[in-house]
């Protein structure tokens, strides 16, 4: 469990009401993240001991590098990868430890989020499930829950077709090297400016660049995953965060998706010789202006509907970046979906 809190005096009390209240607890931003060390009850430390007891660790700040974490995007805000951590280990009376934290007000007015992280592995399906359960505490009060469940296949080669997969990956790399050599040769012959004027050359170059980025990220991802798994094997009962490994796995998947998208666009160049596909392309080209005007009008109406829905149905103060959550579900009523809100 990781607690994120704001600094004391994170906001200023207006002078008009300073005589009524002198305390102000603002919203969370990474810039006002509390990174100080404390003792029990959030008391300031007067002297630092050379040895820190296990119970004192919950009151000492640990940064994202120490926890192998990265900023986490929840409902209300984006929280830093650091915080104040309690590790719930097997064989310990964790209920007593949590009760002690409750008695010492581990969660109080400056707390803005508690993130509970754990990872489970299903050997039958070879899937890791990286779970983050978040309880957010807005400045106005209440608790807002949020859950992030990320499924990843971190063991790439565990079945009988691993050699076939490795062979296909090797052939793919050879093809990319060949295409890169061919495009570099063409750039050298025509010049970079003349080369980039052709749309299909830009698509080809994008495929090559994103593929090289995916290959580099594939190697880095594999090294990061091996490092985390080695730590788990060395000390299986101590918590190791898979959040960073899951993040790179997700980024690698995004890069592959971009490569596949560009490859499908390139496929359209070959399909233009088909009469039916050529007819569809000609129709879209003819109706381009009408479709553009309709898209602009539809976008304005859709944005207005999303903003109204956010103001009416949202249960806590709305910020503009959070309206994307309603834009995700707004098209569902048009498709016949029920129970959207």
Structure characterization notes:
With 341 residues, this protein is α+β, with helices and mostly antiparallel strands. The protein is built from nine helices and nine strands. The strands form three sheets. Strands 6-1-7-8-9 form a five-stranded antiparallel β-sheet, with helices on one face. The chain has a two-stranded antiparallel ribbon with strand order 2-3. Helix 3 packs antiparallel against helix 5 (199-234) and helix 5 packs antiparallel against helix 6. The chain starts with a strand and ends in a 12-residue tail after the last helix. The mean pLDDT is 83. GO terms for molecular function: calcium channel activity; calcium ion binding. It is a multi-pass membrane protein.
Structural class: alpha+beta
Mean pLDDT, nearest integer?
83
What is the distance, rounded to the nearest whole angstrom, between the alpha carbons of the first and last residues? 30 Å
C-alpha geometry: extended
Strand tally: 9
Strand order of the largest sheet: 6-1-7-8-9
What fraction of residues sit in β-strands?
5-15%
Question: Could you spell the SSE succession in H and E letters?
Answer: EEEHEEEHEEEHHHHHHH
Computed over alpha carbons, the radius of gyration is 27 Å
Question: Helix amount, in percent?
Answer: 40-55%
Keywords:
about 350 residues; alpha+beta; 5-stranded antiparallel beta sheet; two-stranded antiparallel ribbon; extended; transmembrane helix; calcium channel activity; calcium ion binding; PKD_2
Summarize the structure.
The protein is α+β, with helices and mostly antiparallel strands. It has 9 helices and 9 strands.
């Amino acid at each position: 469990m990781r607690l994120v809190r704001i600094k004391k005096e994170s906001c200023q009390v207006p002078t008009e009401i300073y005589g009524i209240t002198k305390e102000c607890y603002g919203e969370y931003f990474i810039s006002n993240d509390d990174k100080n060390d404390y003792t029990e009850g959030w008391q300031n430390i007067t002297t630092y001991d050379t040895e820190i007891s296990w119970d004192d660790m919950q009151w000492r700040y640990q940064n994202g590098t120490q926890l192998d974490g990265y900023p986490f995007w929840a409902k209300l805000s984006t929280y830093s990868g650091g915080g104040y951590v309690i590790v719930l280990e097997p064989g310990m009376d964790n209920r007593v430890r949590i009760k002690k934290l409750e008695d010492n007000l581990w969660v109080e007015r400056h707390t803005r989020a508690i993130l509970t992280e754990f990872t489970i592995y299903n050997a039958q399906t070879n899937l890791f499930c990286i779970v983050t359960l978040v309880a957010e505490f807005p400045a106005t009060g209440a608790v807002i829950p949020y859950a992030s469940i990320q499924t990843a296949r971190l063991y790439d080669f565990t079945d009988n077709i691993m050699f076939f997969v490795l062979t296909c990956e090797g052939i793919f790399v050879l093809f990319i090297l060949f295409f890169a050599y061919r495009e570099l040769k063409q750039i050298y012959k025509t010049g970079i400016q003349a080369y980039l004027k052709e749309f299909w050359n830009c698509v080809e170059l994008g495929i090559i660049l994103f593929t090289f980025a995916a290959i580099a990220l594939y190697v880095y991802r594999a090294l990061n995953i091996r490092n985390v798994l080695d730590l788990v094997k060395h000390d299986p009962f101590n918590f190791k965060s898979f959040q960073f490994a899951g993040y790179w796995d997700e980024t690698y998947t995004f890069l592959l998706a971009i490569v596949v998208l560009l490859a499908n666009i390139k496929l359209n160049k070959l399909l233009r010789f088909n009469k039916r596909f050529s007819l569809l392309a000609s129709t879209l080209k003819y109706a381009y202006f009408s479709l553009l005007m309709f898209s602009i009008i539809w976008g304005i109406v859709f944005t207005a509907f999303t903003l109204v829905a956010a103001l009416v149905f949202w249960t806590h103060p709305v910020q503009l970046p959070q309206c994307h959550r309603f834009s995700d579900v707004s098209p569902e009523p048009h498709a016949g979906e029920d129970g959207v809100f």
